[in-house]
C-alpha cells in the first residue's frame, strides 16, 4: 500500500505542475483513488479535511467580493495616491497599500482591487504600467503570511497548528509572524526606491472613487474583530472561525437581497467564491491524509532530519530555502499542505516545539512564490491584467524586480524568525 500511495502522490504533484488548469480535478481524482483503493475509508477521508479552513476560505472570499463591489478599496487607494508628490511614491504607496490590504484579504483579490488604479495612473501619465503591477503583485504576496486570513497558506498553518487570529501577532509571549512580515516589508522599500528612482513625474488625481455601500466594510471589520475575540475563547468548537466567516457572509447576502433589493446578490456573490481552490484543498487534505496513514510523512521527515544531521539551524535553513526554491515553480498551497505534517514530525523526532519550523516553512513557501511569474496566483493575475492591455511580460523582466525584492524579504524573515523562535 505504501508504494501505491507514494506513486499516486508523486503523480499528483507532477500533474499539478504540468497541468495547472486541471489541478482541482487532479486533486479530487487522486483523493478518490485513495478511497477506492482502500488506503483511506470514506469516513476517515472526510475526517482528514479541515472543515474550519474550508469554511473560512469560502466565507472570506464572499465577504471580499461584497467589499470590492462597494468600491471602498478603490477609494482608499485614491486617497493614498492623492497624498503623494510623484509617480515613484505613488507606486511605493500603492505597493504598501496592497500589502496592508493583502494581510486581511486574499492576494488575488488585492491585485484585482488595486491594479486598475495603477493602470489608470499609467494611462494618464503615458508610462508603462508593467512594473507598477508587478510591485503590487509581489507586495500582496509578501503580506499573505502576516495574518490568519491573509492567504490560504496562513489558513493551512492556523488550522494545522490550532493558531487563532491573534496568534499571528503575539504567540506564546513572543513576536508573531505579522511583525516579522512587516519588518520584511519595510526592508524591501529601499529596493523599490532604487528600482523606481527615475519615476519622478508629478501626480494628482482629479476625481476620487465614490463608495456605493459601507456595509461590506463594516462586515470585514467585524469579521476581523470577531476572529480576534474568538482567539481568547478556551475550548471553543474547532470550526468556530469558519462559522464566523460564513455567518457574516450570510448576513451580507441577506442585507443585499432584503434591504438593498438586489435580487442578483445571492448568485453574484456565491459565484465569485473560488470553488476550485476549495475543492483543490479538500482533495489535497485527503491525499496527505492517505500518505500519512501509510507512513510516508514519517519517511519524508527522516530524510530531512538525515540531511540536517540533528542540527536545528541546518534543518531550519534547509526547510526555509527548499521552500523558497519549490514555491518559485509550483503553487505553494499543495506544497504547504504537504509539508506541515512533515515539519511537525521532524520537530517531534527532535523533541522540540514545532513553531520555529512552521514559521520558517511559511516564510519560505509564501515569499518564494514571488521569484517567478508562475510562482503565485497573484503574479499570474497581475500579468493577466497586463496581457489584456497589450503588455506581454517576459520572465527575465519580471525577475529584475522580483528577485532582489524576494531575497531581501526572505533573508529578513529567515534571520528574524531564527532569532525570535529558536
TrEMBL record:
Instruction: Return one GO MF term.
Output: arsenite transmembrane transporter activity
Q: How does it sit in the membrane?
A: Multi-pass membrane protein
Q: What is its main location?
A: membrane
Where does the chain cross the membrane?
26-42, 49-68, 88-115, 176-195, 215-233, 240-258, 278-300, 312-335, 355-380, 401-421
- A GO CC term? plasma membrane
> Which of UniProt's keywords are assigned here?
Cell membrane, Membrane, Transmembrane, Transmembrane helix, Transport
Show where the Citrate transporter-like domain sits: 13-357
* DNA repair as UniProt keyword: no
Its annotated compartments are: Cell membrane
Q: Known Pfam families for this protein?
A: CitMHS (PF03600)
Q: Per its UniProt record, what InterPro entries does this chain match?
A: Arsenical_pump_ArsB, Cit_transptr-like_dom, Diverse_Ion_Transporter
- State the similarity comment: Belongs to the CitM (TC 2.A.11) transporter family.
**Record protein name field:** Citrate transporter
